[in-house]
Amino acid sequence: MSKIEKLRPSGLHHNPAYSHVVTASGARTIYLSGQVSTDEEGRVVGEGDIGAQTTQVMTNIGLALKSAGATYADIVKITTFVVGYKPELRPTIGKARSVFFEGIEPPASTLVGVSALAAPEWLIEIEAVAVVD
User: Fold this and answer.
1) CA distance 96 to 98
2) Mean pLDDT of the chain
3) Residues near 56 by Cβ (< 8 Å), separated by ≥ 6?
């Protein structure tokens, strides 16, 4: 059985949006490619809307996890890339993302501002690592 511990070390600021440390043991590690805001047909969802794009990206992550027999609770690390990141975008991204981690401790997380992604319509890309039995 996989075991995932999400730790909040004393001395580090407690941020409810992510865990500072995650330890994981299990039989299988799953690496998800960066997911973007496209539907099954490859059409952009939420063009120009970072909140809508974040929701679609997280939905796509859920589909990818399900295909590997995993859930959001199995994610140990996510990395988020945001085009033209500004601190005022963080609450919108966080609100859209937090719905998918409701009732569970969030994974370790890094947010990186970038100048561009592979397509000009994409505002956000998120990659993830999960551990399951």
Assistant:
1) 6
2) 94
3) 37, 38, 39, 45, 46
